[in-house]
Amino acid sequence: MSRNRNLADLINGIDASKITSGTFADARLSQSSVQQYASTFDDNKIVNDISTLGLRVHTQENLNASNTNSASFDVFQDSSGITNLTNCERNQGEFLSSVVSAGFAIDNAGTLLTNLHNVHNFDNNKTDDYQGNMVLSDSDVAPTFSSSIKKFGTHSVYSAQDNQGYSMNYNSTGHSNFASNESTSMSCWIYQTSDNAQWNMIYDGISSTGNHGFIFAGRYQNQDDTGIYDNNGWANGGGTIVLNQWHHMVFMISTSKKEMYFDGVRQINASGSFSWHGSDTSHRLFKRYDNGSNLHFNGYCDQLCFWKNKILSTTEIADLYNSGNGNEFTSGVENATGSFENNPITASSTNKMGAVITYQDNAGTNALNTDIVLKLSADNGSNYSTATLTALPDFATGIKMAKVNDLSVTAGTQLKYKIEFANQSNSKNARIRGVSLQY
């Protein structure tokens, strides 16, 4: 009987509770019976940490775009890693944006210089960057625009010798009317090409002589071109012009003080009672004036800036002067949408990609996947897959971070991302600070 029972056990299977010792061969164990007890390994946290670390190192070391066998990093220290910019720009503050708010300029350190009224880079020839108005006019000799000698962008404005003319003439009216006695600042770059040695300073002359160069906050009627309405001119300024070289000028005036800087050094620092009538049609915020054939300026002007109700600090003046190493201010560019891409990265064939981005809400709050949209491609942009970004802890104070992992893409070896901006304005705009691709 017991033998029959043992035989039945062999035929029907042994109760697992009866097995108390011994080793099973691998072939006797099913995959599912093992996997149900194994924890699934997820490397996304590690991958995201590596991306974050890479972006942090590139930010702190101010590194150019680079990549490894499994990740790329770009914090936009330059433009070497990006392409196909549409309605957006890389700013010297090292970010990408579709909006540069009208009324502000950003220096080379990314600092906002507030109350900026206008920036004129002359890239659009006779119209300004802000309101599309005529920047310069002339009743005598019209100014020309140069693409060969320029400090920034594509053009500068050229002023030829013009006896008793005013071939650079910026009228305050029609440009939001700088009111009388407002504190006002101006900055520009000048490049003089010739000089007869009788006049080689860039400042307005003593009123009794009528010898003029660049005039700020002045008028042109009745030879009252001293730069300030009450005949207290900008005389006794310094700064010898070196021909065929760019120099930086700053003029500032308030009701009690006037200052002039040349190449970052203050040349005029006068206290008193000063006024100018910015709303008077005979006044000019800026002009170039000749009075006699021996007193002239032949040369170029670029990046002409004006600030209303603001006297620039010494730090801001230093930033403006130092920004001459390639920083072009812009203002009034309001693109509701825009996009940019990276240059393709060659890697092993993949059909899954991920990314970590760092961004800043410069104004308002930008919604991920609506106002900021990320797309990934492994076939050089022929096919893009739209990511669903999710927030990560902040990268730094004021700098947010988001990620996507294991996004399915059309298989390929040329890896790209594309970031699209939407719903951008002066009240809501985003700045993309860094992108790390994962592959």
Secondary structure layout:
Layout: H1 2-12, H2 31-35, H3 44-61, E1 66-67, E2 71-74, E3 82-86, E4 89-91, E5 95-97, E6 99-100, E7 104-106, E8 112-114, E9 116-120, E10 144-146, E11 156-159, E12 168-171, E13 184-194, E14 214-219, E15 246-253, E16 257-262, E17 265-271, E18 283-288, E19 298-308, H4 314-322, E20 333-334, E21 338-342, E22 345-363, E23 372-377, E24 385-386, E25 390-396, E26 399-421, E27 429-438
Briefly say what this structure is.
This protein is mainly β and 439 residues long.
Commentary on this structure:
With 439 residues, this protein is mostly beta strands. The chain folds into two domains: 154 residues, Galactose-binding domain-like (Jelly Rolls, Sandwich), CATH 2.60.120; 230 residues, Jelly Rolls. 10% of the residues lie in helices and 39% in strands. Strands 1, 2, 3, 21, 22, 23, 24, 25, 26 and 27 form a ten-stranded antiparallel sheet that branches. The N and C termini lie far apart (67 Å). About 11% of the residues have low confidence.
